[in-house]
């Protein structure tokens, strides 16, 4: 039996999909990844993290590939890359602090985003870090890292013969002087229009006329239609 595995940020997790709650089992099971799994009778694992960074997606993707993935089992992996203006820190192992979330994974990791409210942090040190976020994020650097993460997962999935499909949820990947050769090496048959802003999930949904929540998330109707778009791509690739 095929297992659908998803990595990403809040959009891939399904945050505010019901228009009411940030995190819920309904949102978890009815986002575009969950819908594809349900419609095709696949098993389903979602490692997306609300507020998660491309750094987090890359790390959790490799962790799944090397520690969790089972041999001789069929997988289809979805990777929804997010805004480059995010990173992750980690609370000290011996501290009482952790990041409260329903998602899978090490809850000591803490997602940092540009413009994030400091209240999300549980330690004073991490609350103070938010005042420095304008200095921590720089467009060229962050797009350089993103291209490296995408190429790294691409090559890892190919080596392990895992069927995968990538797309962007928030913004497009931007070529720079430093990353242009890495960008050219991305397999655009398995990475849906990485340089196109209108083809990112949020932009695509708004252009289709779907309404967003106050925190820029799309609701169930958009997830239903986007699941159809991804399904068509997966069928074109011969994954099912």
Which key terms come to mind for this protein?
13% strand, 240 residues, four-stranded parallel sheet, Rossmann fold
Task: Reconstruct the topology from this structure.
Elements: E1 3-7, H1 10-13, H2 25-30, H3 32-39, E2 43-46, H4 54-68, E3 75-81, E4 86-90, E5 109-113, H5 124-129, H6 133-136, H7 139-159, E6 163-168, H8 180-184, H9 201-207, H10 220-236
Parallel strand pairs: 1-2, 1-3, 3-6
Antiparallel strand pairs: 4-5
Helix pairs in contact: 3-10, 4-7
Task: Write up this protein.
This protein has 240 residues and is α/β, with parallel strands linked by helices. The chain has one domain (3-236): SGNH hydrolase (Rossmann fold, 3-Layer(aba) Sandwich), CATH 3.40.50. 39% of the residues lie in helices and 13% in strands. The chain has ten helices and six strands; from the N terminus they run E-H-H-H-E-H-E-E-E-H-H-H-E-H-H-H. It has helices at 10-13, 25-30, 32-39, 54-68, 124-129, 133-136, 139-159, 180-184, 201-207, 220-236; strands at residues 3-7, 43-46, 75-81, 86-90, 109-113, 163-168. The strands form two sheets. The protein has a four-stranded parallel sheet, with helices on both faces. Strands 4-5 form a two-stranded antiparallel sheet. Helix 3 (32-39) packs across helix 10 (220-236) and helix 4 (54-68) packs parallel to helix 7 (139-159). The chain is globular.
């Amino acid at each position: 039996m095929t297992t659908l595995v998803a990595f990403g940020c809040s959009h891939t997790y399904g945050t505010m999909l019901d228009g009411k709650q940030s995190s819920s089992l309904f949102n978890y099971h009815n986002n575009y990844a969950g819908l594809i799994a349900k419609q095709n009778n696949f098993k389903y694992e979602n490692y997306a993290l609300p507020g998660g960074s491309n750094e987090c997606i890359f790390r959790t993707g490799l962790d799944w590939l090397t520690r969790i993935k089972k041999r001789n089992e069929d997988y289809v992996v979805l990777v929804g890359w997010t805004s480059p203006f995010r990173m992750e820190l980690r609370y000290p192992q011996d501290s009482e602090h952790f990041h409260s979330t329903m998602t899978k994974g090490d809850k000591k990791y803490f997602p940092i985003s540009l413009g994030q409210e400091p209240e999300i942090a549980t330690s004073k040190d991490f609350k103070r870090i938010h005042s420095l976020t304008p200095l921590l994020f720089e467009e060229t650097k962050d797009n350089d890292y993103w291209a490296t993460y995408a190429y790294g997962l691409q090559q890892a999935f190919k080596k392990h013969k895992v069927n995968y499909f990538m797309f962007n949820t928030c913004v497009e990947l931007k070529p720079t002087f430093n990353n242009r050769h890495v960008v050219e090496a991305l397999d655009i048959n398995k990475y849906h229009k990485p340089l196109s802003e209108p083809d990112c999930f949020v932009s695509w949904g708004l252009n289709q006329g779907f309404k967003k929540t106050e925190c820029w998330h799309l609701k169930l109707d958009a997830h239903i239609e986007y699941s159809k778009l991804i399904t068509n791509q997966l069928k074109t690739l011969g994954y099912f």
